[in-house]
Every structure is written in C-alpha cells, then in structure tokens.
Write a structure and sequence with these properties.
Structural class of chain B: alpha+beta
Shape of chain A: globular
Largest sheet of chain A: 2 strands, antiparallel
Strand order of the largest sheet of chain B: 10-22-21-20-11-18-19
Number of helices of chain A: 18
Pfam families (chain A): KdpA
Protein name (chain A): Potassium-transporting ATPase potassium-binding subunit
Distance between the termini of chain A: 34 Å
Number of domains of chain A: 1
Strand order of the largest sheet of chain A: 1-2
Family (chain A): Belongs to the KdpA family.
Order of helices and strands of chain A: HHHHHHHEEHHHHHHEEHHHHH
Number of strands of chain B: 22
Mean pLDDT of chain B: 82
Low-confidence stretches of chain A: none
Largest interface: A-B, 73 and 75 residues
Number of helices of chain B: 22
Shape of chain B: elongated
Strand content of chain B: 15-25%
Radius of gyration of chain B: 34 Å
Strand content of chain A: under 5%
Structural class of chain A: mainly alpha
Membrane topology (chain A): Multi-pass membrane protein
Main location (chain A): membrane
Radius of gyration of chain A: 23 Å
Helix content of chain A: 55-70%
Oligomer: heterodimer
C-alpha cells in the first residue's frame, strides 16, 4: 500500500512542473526552451518542408493530422511487409503476412501497440528498433498536438481577439506542435527514463541475439537464445508515450524489460506522467484554475477508486484454489517479484491511460479486477492516452455541460461558447461509436464461432473477445491473452476498430472545438454555468458512469460479471 | 396580469385521449425518434403475440407486454394532446367574442355594414362609442377610451389615440368614448394570435434550437440502446442462453429515454401556453426560448419605469413661510391648470389637507405661455398666484419689486439633485416655496428588476433626461445602468454594441422609432398599445402593455430548458433501476446464479419485466402536470439550481424507480 501511495505521489509531483513546462512549449510566446531546441527544430522543418509560421484552422489542422498519419501508415506497412529484404535484420527474420503487417502497422500508428505477433521473434531490428520506436515517439506527439489545438479552440483560437464572429480560427500549426511535442517533451523525458532503466540492467545494445548456456545442463534446454537490442530506449518511450508495445512478448513482466523494484516504480510513474501533466497543461492553457482542479479531482477520484478495487480484487484468493488449504492473494499470471499490489496498480493505470503495457497477465486477474481494467478502457479518459485521453475527457465535459446547461435554464455553453445542434450531432456520433464498434464486433465474432479461435468456452471467451475489441477501440493494446488472435478476421476487424477508435475520437472533437471557436463568446454572469465546482464535478462523474454503465452493462453481465457470479456460486468456470 | 384558464376538465381529457389515438400513425410517430422506436417495438411485440396464439403457445406475458407498450405510446401522445388542448383553450379565451362582431367598413366615402370575419388587411373601419372594435388594428384618426378587460382582464379604461405611441387596438374590445377610424392590421386567420395558435398546434409547430439539439442527443442514446439490445442475442447464444424476444423489446423500451421523449413536445407547447397565459403573444417558439438566455434588458424610462407624467411629490416652503400657506398658494396656482402636472399638485394639496377651496369671485386663469413660462390664477389686478420654473418666477417677481431670497436657490438645487423638477410658487407679495415634481416610479418595478438581476439579466434604462435626473431615477428604480441624454437612434446602436460583446439583448418598446431597435434585439417585446410598426418589428407582443412583463418571458424561457434538462436526467437515471429489474429477469431461467443481481427481489422474471414496463408507462402521465407547469425556477446561483435539480431529478431518478418498481411488482405478483 505504501508503495502505491509513494508511486502515485511522485507521479503527481513530477507531472505538475512538467505540465507547466508544456504550457510554455505550446505557447506562441517565447520560451526558455527555444534557445536549446529552436535550432534542432528549424532543421526538421526544413527537412519536411514546413513553414512553422503558417497557422491552421481546424480543417487544415485535421487534414494535416490525417495525411501525415496516412503517409506514416503506408511506410510502416511496407517496412513490415518487406523487412526480410531490408537491412538491420541480423537474425534473418521473415516477412509478416499482409494482414498481420497491416494490423501491426495500424496498431502502432494509432498509438495502440496491440500485438498479434510476438515481438522479439517476428520483427527485425529495423522494424522494431527503428520503425516501431519512431512511431512510438511520433504518434503520442500527434495526439498531443490535436489536444493542444482543441484547447486553443475552446478559447476561441489564437486569433480570438482579432477575428470576427464566424471567421475561421487559428488553432496553431500541426507540424510545429507535433515536432515540439517530440523534441521538447518526449525525447528529453525518454532519454532520462532510458538512462535510469539502463542503470537497472535493461539491455541497451545493437548486438544480435545472445546465445547462453543454461545453468541446469541436465534439463532438455542446454542452450538458450536471448534477443537483446536497444531495449531500454524502447521501454522508456513505450511507457511515456502510452504506447505499451514492449520489446519482448511478455512486456514488462519480462525481467529484461523490468528487472528491479526501482525500474518497476519508474515504469509505473512513466505510464501516467504525461497524461497527468496534460491536465495541468490544459488548465493553464485555458487560464482556468477551477477547471484544472475539477478535472484533476474527477480523474484522481476515478483513478484512486479503481486502483482500490483492483488491489482489493487481486488480494483475494484465486477461485480455482477454493478447495485448497493454501489460500492467499491471486498470484496467477503475476510475477512474484511484483506481487498482487504492484501488479494491480500497473494493471489499473495501464488500462486507464490507453497504455497497454503489462507487468502481469490481465487474463488471470480475478473477475472484479478484469472488470475494472475493462472499465478504465471503456471510459478511456481517466488520465487517458497522451493527448487523446484528455480529448475524451473534454467530450464527457461537453455532454455534461449540455445537460447541466439545460438544467440551469440557459443554452448550454462552455467558456462562453455555445453547444448547439451541430455540436450535439457530432457528440452524438461519439456516444454511439464505442457501442457500435465494440459491441458490434464482439457480437459478430461470438456469433460465428469459426472465426473466434478462442481458447476458452463460455463467459470467459466472451470476456476475452470483448476485452480485445475494447482494448483496440481504446487504443490501449493490452491483451486479455489466451486468444489466438493472429488470423485474418482478428487482424482485419481489429484494424477497423483501431482506426475508428483513433481518428474519429480525435478529429470529431477537433471539429467541434473549431466550430465552437468561431462563435460569439457569451460573457459570463451570475446566471452562467461554472464548471469549476463540486456540483459540476458530480454531474460529470454521473455522466461518465451512466453513459458507460448503460452502454456496456449487458455485455459485462454475460462476460466478466457472469463469470464472477458463476465462480462465486459454483467455483468452476463455465 | 396572469389569467388562469381552467382547461383540465373531464372533456378535455377525454378529447385528448381520443386525439392521442389518432396521432398513432407511423408518419406522425416518425417525427420523434425515441417514440418511433417504441412504436416499432410495439408492432413487433403484437405480431409475436399473434404468432404465439396461433402456434398454441402460452401468450399471457406477450399479450400483457404488448398492451403496456401500447399504453406507453398512448400516454406519450396524450401528453402532447393535452398540452395542445390547453393551448387552444388559452388562446380562445384571449380571442374575445369576435365571431358575432359587426364592422362598418369604409367603402369610398360611405361606411357599409359587414361581418367582422370578412375584414381584410388595410380595410378601414369606423368605430363609435359603445361599439366593439371588430378586428386588431391601428387607430388612424381620432381618440378613444377603450375597455380591454375582455383580453387583458384589466378593467380600467385605456386611452388610444391616432399618431401616438398608443394607437393599437385589439379586436373584441369595447370602445367606451370617442369615435375613431381603425385600419385593420391583418387578414382573417393571420393575426398574431392566430399565428400563436398555430405555434401550439401540431402542423405548424417548429422545434426550437435547443429542442432540436436535445432530440439529436436522445436519438444518439436510443441508437446506443438499440445496439446494446440487438447484440445481446448473439452474446447470449454463445453461452447457450435462448432469449425471449418480447423481453428484449421490453428491455429496449425501458432503456431508451421514453420519459423525456414522450414529454418533449408537451414541454414545448406548455412553454408557449405559459407565455399566452401571461398575455404575451410570441411569434415563434424560438423567441421564448431565447428569452431564457437574455442577459441585458433595455428599457425606455418613460412609460416603462415611470408613469411618464411628472407628479407633485413634495411642498418645500421658503424661509419664514408656513407650509399651509405654500400649499394653499400652490392649490390656487394650479386649480385651473389642465396639465397632468397641475392636476397632481391639486391632488397632493388636497391630500395634505386644511385647504380653503372656496373659489374666489372674478378669478381668472393665467394659462402657460412660452413667453412667460408661468401659469397661475389672477384673483384681482394686484393679486395673483403663480407657479413656474425658478428663472421665470424670479424674473416676474423682480420686475414687480419682490425680493428673491438666496435660500430659494438651495431648495431648487436640492430638488433637481434628487431627479425632480422644481416649480417655484409665488404670490404678489413674496416667493412662497417650491413644489417638487418627480417622475413617479411604477410600483413593483424595483422588485422585478431585482429578480431579473438574480436571473442574470442586467437592466439598462434609456432616457432623454440629463445625467443627474437619470441617475436619481435609476437608483430609485434599481436598474443596473442608464444611458442619459439619449436620442432615439442610440437604442439601436447600443443594442448592436452589446451584441458585439456577446450579450443577448432584450428590448421593450412601443413607438415607431423603437421599431429598428425591436427588430435588432434578440427579444423584442412590443406593447400591444403601441404602433403597428413596433408590433411588426418585435418578436413578441404584450397584450397588457406592461413592460416589466419581460421578466415572465425570461422565466418561461428558462423553465423550458430546465424542464427538458431535468426530465432528460431523470429519464437516464431511471435506467439504472430498470437494468437491475430486467437484466436478471432476462437471464434468470437459463443462468440461475444471475439472480444475485436481482437486488429488488422481484416476484418472477415476468413480473419484473412487466413492473418495469408499467413504471415506464405510468411515469409519463405522472409527469404531465410537471411538464405543463414547468420545473419551478428559483432565483438562485446557477450552481445551486444545478445542485437542486441534480438532487431531485438525478438522485431521485435513480432511487424512485427502485421503490416504485418493487411496489408494482408486489401488486403484479399477486395476479400471476
């Protein structure tokens, strides 16, 4: 318990100054970081042929975001498909099938890092060390850029004071925001984390896989090949950029990715560091302390209670041991090094933040733990992924503002910008989308058992399928495992889920913010709704809970809840 | 003046129930996405029941469900019908006895008798003493007093005169004195009132912007629940559970926001009805809704905040003069004066008491003339009483050799400082003192402004007075701000200025020169007594011609939104309990361990579903009174209003159905 509190306190203590720093990074005013980074960035702008002084409205910003992703996606697909003929392949690894290459490319492009392959065995150093690590730096910065643009839109754009009502607003420059996110935030942080992790023994080399002789020569395995590589740097950005795709298949439960208690603490902090910092950044950019306090309080409350539930759940015995004398915490699928508490903490945070890295197998969590990790992904806005998490949170705020605005008898508005039919139509799309994609694909997959290829029958199977699509839609990437997911159906359906789960929830809010920015700003008075208070926070929590509860309760009942009840009453899995 | 029209009689309820059945056509239902889904569900449920009957299977549950679904639809339509019926009742009560009216229409030089129903726009009719005005219109010649009590409920006669800001007359009201020519303002069936009736009745009714936005949100939520229910059979069959399709329909109907979906049209109509019952005719539902967002109200001082005529309020005697002497002198100086100011002095003198009213013989009235700027009474060649402005009296007295005391200047200054007009009273021997004339602020105005302020509306007074006078009146009336020395065209530019800052501005006016400002304002409330131009330009007309009526419109606008928001919250919160009733029931037969989720311990799966459905159906008529009346609006801070509504409709919405469904289930279980 003490460790959990220590880790979370440190995460928040570090996130605050980081958030303040990020305000400066994304401000159009001069910043102390300019002196160090401007020369580097200028070279990058010249290389990609971008004029950093152009300003973009929401349409051009969104288009630049989508086009740059399309370009990156094509490059990623080609590298993965042709890695066997490309350099940096000392272990002579073959090409990926088209569907696996597509899934892998999209999965990393969408900052999901859902893996239907096993990392160290199927990817070359070029694919893993260069392509994937590049995407792990670029994609969080892209979402962060969109988030920053949305925040600017909420304040009427950077040209609010000069622009006329109804005129397009300047939401910044997409390329500048992305490059700054990479150069000024992600790379420096990753460098620090990578150094710390290397000091703890995480490999950091370009050598080929190492062959070692095992200690127990009497066993069948007398020689073992251990893949190494620039692991530390990849793990650093995997954690910081809410990516989640590890160097090794077992992710951070592998001792080479996560060797010591200290490395585990650092990696856990790295999961939530930037997402928490964004909350502080947002409040600063919006120049509203009350808003920051409310956002932080709501997220912290959700986060803390979810951690509490999962820790409690994993401290309970595994139902499979019901008949046995040796009861104790549920250790199935956990590293004894970390134990139930730190595994539960990691599991909760990684699903809240759409990170998806693991230090224990979520498939083996007790049902309540499984339900909580899933809830974190369904809400997808408790801290949330870098950039996209806070955007999801803003969407919840807009919905809550609409309802509260009506309830106080005014046309709903946030920061003086009205939420009207066009915005509600777009918000409506975002409300329907998760249900449509997650429940739709789960139902199809389950209805056609020849496609499912799951290793478990009954409730647990539904749980797995539901988890897989939830994880894909939330761009989380963690797996419930135990699922034979490298098939054409899984790859293609997950690609669709990933794309819908990434691009619509970023571009639609950008459009809403862009449209709202253009509107006349209603001056605030005694009759206007303020979001920085307990009443609104409670309303927001109710909206978040009710929307997700109503959408997903039946599926949860047939999945994890059914499983839990069955275990509780019969002690056996159905 | 608010009239309560009793319309919830047995007859209206009966008619509305029949009307509600007629609304059950698919084309009509498709207008409301939520209720359309219920409609489709009902049809499928009935078909499934028929199928069960023809297959010889048990059908009691299916029949019961179909019936409750049908009732749900009926109740939803009923809420709309009853709101419409009330609207019609309300409107026809405003439409005096028009049908039997006779008009004398101008035809060349003559006037021909014709039926009022045949009058067209721009026809000119003559109306004489004792006759009823045959149609809404504007007096183009003459002056008359009119009894408008048939429409406004106010029995005092009002003065209406051509070429003034009070030239508008209402059809069905009675001309008490005078003879006028009236130009008819609308074609038959096209008056403001007719348009308003159109706004409350089905065909012409347009959804207001916030209503459209809410409908979209409700449609999105409905789509979510459709997906939830449609994917359920696939998941269930994987764990070998066969679901009852009627139960799934019941689940769907219980989850989609039928409460707000069913009541939404009624809430909108009821809002218009409330405006009507306050004697306000709105030209669109949107105007009423926008009124809830107003944050600046622009008012003319004259006729709005004050009565318009200066009235005597105080006698201030000069040094060494008794008050009685001054009062008596002021009385003589004014007793023949026909102006409202003069009359008010006489009135105040009489109230003060101790007057000698024996009229002196051979006395002669000194009328006000621009050259002397005095008026008074001449008793004899050397004896007189006069009143006038300080300068005028001083001039006269000094000419006559009467000394002017410096103390007078102090009195005059003091009155002016308080926003009054000082009139100096003097006789042939000395200057006697000052009568203070002040603009009298209408009673209750300050309270209404205070309430507007608490609702977030800032009031701005516009007046041609100088700053000192304007400031004094502004302070007394409790307006937040004032514009002094304003010209008529300043109103328009002021509105534009405030709108550019993002404010939503309401304007109250009656004159032709107010028309551009009324048109520019987000809410333009024209006085019915006002000119036709003003009434055309505004988007609302107040039949009572009471400028502070805007308060009621603001409240109606806010109530509209609050009622919609509160019922949406309630509707969504209800779903929690419904889930706990139906989900265990759906799986109960196949997966007995699911009964753990049945926290309410309901009788049987069938009774659970039926109880939830009954709750879902009954909550609609139960909330009809609230929908028609509107959620109570308290003048409190936004946060507090939100907290109250979240407690009542959010928390209440979660808890109430648990209790009621359990109670219904106990009843239902007794029968099956």
């Amino acid at each position: 318990m003490f460790e959990i509190i220590l880790i979370m306190t440190m995460a928040i203590a570090l996130a605050y100054p980081l958030g303040r720093y990020m305000i400066g990074v994304f401000s159009s005013e001069a910043h102390f970081s300019d002196r160090i980074f401007n020369p580097i960035e200028r070279i990058i702008y010249r290389c990609i042929g971008v004029n950093p002084h152009t300003s973009m409205n929401w349409k051009s910003y969104g288009l630049a975001f989508l086009l740059s992703n399309l370009m990156l996606g094509i490059i990623a697909f080609l590298i993965l498909k042709f890695q066997h003929v490309l350099p940096l392949n000392p272990d002579n690894i073959g090409p990926l099938s088209w569907d696996l290459a597509l899934h892998t490319a999209v999965s990393f492009l969408t900052n999901t890092n859902q893996q239907h392959y096993s990392g160290q065995a199927q990817l070359s150093y070029l694919s893993q060390g260069t392509l994937i690590v590049t995407l792990q730096f670029v994609t969080p910065a892209m979402a962060l850029a969109v988030c920053v643009a949305i925040l600017r839109g909420m304040m009427g754009g950077r040209n609010e004071k000069l622009a006329k009502e109804g005129a397009e607003r300047d939401l910044g420059n997409y390329y500048v925001d992305t490059v700054r996110g990479i150069v000024r935030v992600l790379i420096p942080l990753a460098a620090v984390v990578a150094l710390i992790l290397s000091s703890q023994g995480v490999p950091s080399t370009f050598k080929e896989a190492q062959t070692v002789t095992t200690l127990d020569q009497s066993s069948a395995v007398i020689e073992q090949t251990i893949p190494v590589g620039p692991v530390a740097s990849m793990v650093a950005i995997k954690q910081l950029g809410t990516n989640g795709g590890g160097w090794y298949g077992p992710n951070s439960s592998n001792p080479l990715e996560n060797p010591t208690p200290f490395s585990n603490a650092i990696e856990t902090i790295a999961i939530v560091l930037i997402p928490i910092a964004i909350v502080f950044m947002a409040g600063g950019m919006l120049r509203r302390k009350g808003f920051t306090a409310m956002s932080f309080a709501v997220m912290a409350l959700f986060s803390a209670s979810f951690i509490g539930f999962t820790v409690y759940s994993e401290l309970q015995p595994n139902a499979a041991f019901n008949e046995l004398a040796a009861s104790g915490p549920n250790m199935e699928g956990k590293e004894t090094r970390f134990g139930p508490e730190l595994s539960a903490l990691w599991g909760t945070l990684t699903t809240q933040t759409s990170n998806g890295s693991v230090n224990a197998m979520h498939d083996s969590f007790n049902p309540v733990g499984g339900l909580i990790t899933r809830s974190g992904m369904l809400i997808n806005g408790i801290w949330g992924g870098v950039g996209c998490g806070f955007v999801n949170f803003i969407v919840y705020i807009w919905i809550a503002v609409f309802l509260s605005g009506l309830m106080i008898g005014r046309t709903p508005e946030l920061f003086g910008k009205k939420i009207e039919t066009r915005e509600i139509t777009l918000l409506g799309t975002l409300i329907v989308l998760p249900t449509l994609v997650i429940l739709g694909f789960t139902a199809i997959t389950v209805a056609l058992p020849s496609l499912t290829g799951n290793s478990n029958p009954g409730f647990h199977a539904i749980s797995q399928v539901f988890y897989e699509y939830t994880s894909a839609f939330a761009n989380n990437g963690s797996g419930f495992e135990g699922l034979g997911d490298n098939t054409v159906w899984w790859n293609v359906s997950c690609v669709i889920t990933l794309l819908l789960g990434r691009y619509l929830p970023l571009v639609i809010p950008l459009a809403i913010a862009g449209m709202m920015a253009k509107k006349r700003t209603v001056p605030t008075g005694v009759g206007s709704l303020s979001v920085g208070n307990v009443t609104f926070a409670v309303t927001l929590i109710a909206v978040i809970l009710i929307l997700n509860f109503l959408s997903f309760l039946p599926a949860a009942v047939i999945g994890p809840i059914g499983e839990a009840l069955q275990l509780a009453t019969t002690g056996v899995e159905g | 003046m608010t009239k309560q029209v009793k319309t919830l009689t047995a007859d209206t309820v009966k008619d509305s129930l029949i009307d509600a059945l007629k609304k059950m056509t698919p084309t009509n239902m498709a207008k409301n996405p939520v209720m359309f889904v219920v409609w489709v569900g009902t049809v499928i449920s009935i078909l499934l029941t028929v199928f069960h009957i023809s297959a010889g299977e048990p059908f009691g549950f299916e029949l019961c469900t179909s019936f409750i679904l049908f009732i749900t639809l009926w109740f939803a339509n009923f809420s709309e019908s009853i709101a419409e019926a009330r609207g019609r009742g309300q409107a026809s009560s405003l439409r005096a006895t028009k049908a039997s009216l006779v008009a004398f229409k101008k035809n060349g030089e003559d006037f021909v008798e014709t039926d009022a129903a045949n009058l067209k726009k721009d026809d000119v009719v003559s109306v004489r003493q004792g006759q009823y005005i045959p149609a809404d219109g504007e007096i183009i010649k003459g002056v008359a007093t009119v009894n408008e009590s048939a429409v406004t409920g106010e029995s005092a006669a009002v003065l209406r005169e051509a070429n003034t800001d009070h030239s508008g007359v209402i059809g069905g009201t009675k001309l008490l004195t005078g003879e006028v020519l009236v130009r008819v303002s609308d074609d038959p069936g096209n008056s403001f009132l007719d348009k308003m009736i159109g706004l409350v009745e089905g065909a012409e009714r347009k959804k207001t912007p916030n209503e459209v936005a809410l409908t979209v949100l409700l449609a999105a939520l409905t789509a979510v629940f459709l997906l939830v229910v449609m994917t359920l059979p696939a998941l269930a069959s994987f764990v070998n559970v066969e679901l009852n399709y009627v139960m799934l329909i019941a689940l769907l109907v219980c989850l989609i926001p039928t409460t707000i979906g069913g009541l939404l049209p009624a809430i909108g109509i009821a809002g218009m009805n409330r405006a009507l019952s306050a004697n306000i005719i709105a030209k669109s539902g949107k105007a009423v809704e926008v009124a809830g967002d107003i944050d600046i109200l622009l008012l003319d001082k004259t006729g709005t905040i004050t009565y318009g005529d200066r009235q005597a309020t105080d006698f201030i005697p000069a040094h060494g003069v008794s008050k009685d002497t001054l009062v008596q002198a002021a009385y003589w100086a004014s007793v023949e004066d026909p102006t409202p100011e003069g009359k008010s002095i006489v009135e105040l003198a009489r109230e003060t008491g101790g007057l000698d009213e024996t009229y002196p013989e051979n006395a002669e009235f000194i009328p006000f003339s621009p050259s002397t700027r005095l008026s008074g009474l001449k008793i004899s060649e050397s004896k007189y009483y006069v009143k006038g402005s300080g300068d005028a009296v001083r001039l006269l007295e000094e000419e006559r050799g009467v000394a002017w005391s410096d103390g007078m200047n102090a009195h005059i200054g003091a009155v002016a400082k308080q926003g009054g007009t000082p009139l100096v009273v003097a006789d042939h021997e000395r200057v006697l003192g000052v009568v203070a004339l002040t603009d009298v602020i209408k009673p209750g105005v300050a309270e209404r402004f205070a309430r507007l302020r608490s609702l977030g509306v800032k009031t701005v007074m516009v007046t041609g007075d100088n700053k000192i006078t304007a400031g004094a009146i502004a302070a007394e009336a409790g307006v937040d701000d004032f514009i002094a020395e304003a010209k008529p065209e300043d109103k328009l530019s002021l509105i534009r200025e405030e709108q550019a800052k993002g404010h939503l501005v309401a304007m109250v006016g009656d004159g032709t020169n107010d028309a551009p400002a009324l048109a520019q304002a987000d809410v333009g409330l024209a006085m019915n007594s006002g000119t036709q131009a003003a009434k055309e330009a505004g988007n609302m007309v107040d039949l009572d011609s009471d400028p502070t009526k805007l308060l009621q419109v603001v409240e109606v606008g806010k109530q509209l939104l609050i009622t919609r928001g509160a019922m949406t919250t309630f509707s969504l919160a209800n779903d929690v309990a419904k889930y706990f009733a139906i989900i265990p029931a759906v799986f109960a037969s196949a997966l007995p361990f699911m009964s753990v989720l049945d926290v309410m311990r309901l009788g049987s799966p069938q009774s659970a579903v039926i109880s939830a459905l009954i709750f879902n159906a009954l909550i609609i008529p139960a909330l009809v009174p609230l929908a028609l009346r509107g959620v109570k609006l308290k003048a409190e801070r936004a946060e507090k209003i939100l907290r109250n509504n979240m407690l009542i409709f959010g928390l209440g919405g979660v808890v109430l159905p648990f209790v009621i469904i359990k109670l219904i289930d106990m009843l239902v279980s007794a029968f099956i």
